[in-house]
Amino acid sequence: MGDDRPIGMFDSGFGGLTVARALIDLVPSEHLIYLGDTGRYPYGSRPLEEVRSFALEIARWLVEEHDVKLIVVACNTASAAGLEALRASLPVPVVGVIDPGLRAAAKVTANRRVGVIGTVGTISSGAYQRAVEEMDGTTPGAAGQGEDSFFELHLAACPGFVEFVERGETSSDQVTVLAERLLAPLGEAGVDTLLLGCTHYPFLARTIGEVMGRDVVLVSSADETAFEVRSVLTSRGIERSTGGSGMYRFYSSGDVEWFRKVGTRLFGEELGQVGQVDWADRRTTSKGHDTP
Ligand code: DGL
Questions:
Q1: Domain match, 130 and 174 both
Q2: Atom of ligand 1 nearest to the CA of 42
Q3: Cα(190)–Cα(186) distance, rounded to whole angstroms?
Q4: What mean pLDDT comes out for the span 60-75?
Q5: Which domain does 283 fall in, by range?
Q6: Of 92, 100, 189, 253, which sits most exposed with the smallest number of CB within 10 A?
Q7: 198 catalytic per annotation
């Protein structure tokens, strides 16, 4: 028995690979279809309605072309813009990265001052503030109504970070200079935890960590998101039952050779060949390699 259908996941580009890595480590036997929407990146500077329409289009492609059993929105901007719309319109469960990230931060912070960095779209959407208000206190030490459980959020948009990662530039003097400028207010706010509220940012973790200093713990949503996926698979009885390794397939809506080259460096050889998705050609034409 078990459900052999793949898990679908997407991001504007390479960022979601950080979540894919955590997922593969936690549930290695699951098949995975990953789309980097590099033809339309960056999402962070676009209106939220536009990002929502991209997310819906991608999710439909994952369901209709790849028969996925669950979708991971491995992008904070798309989660902020479209998680509710996706959940309302899709026949499969949808997991985002905002709540898992906050849960991860809640477990770590001691002084209850948490910094969150993300794209302009994510930060200006108010999604993190809403998510903190909605957290019901069931997560140990999480935000809630009581004074003891509440934590302060200090938000900062980091325009430019995603572009560095997409160019394959994960550490350089330029990245450091930009990070020093953008992260200074968070250092001044005295946060002890910094939530990387964009799935691209873990690729810049070394620089961000150096700029924030040793007293600030960096947290990403990747591991908690993987735990949430595993829990949804189990509770719905849709996990793959075999112990063998899953098959992973990667697609890009932009330059597939660039995606393969930089993606392999960031993710590893398992990335393999990259299939092309052309939204303009019937909105959904895919030329990937073997289906799991
Ligand atoms: N990885 C996306 C996120 O988590 C980046 C969005 C972008 O393309 O600007 O928000």
A1: yes
A2: 8
A3: 7
A4: 97
A5: 7-96+223-290
A6: 189
A7: yes
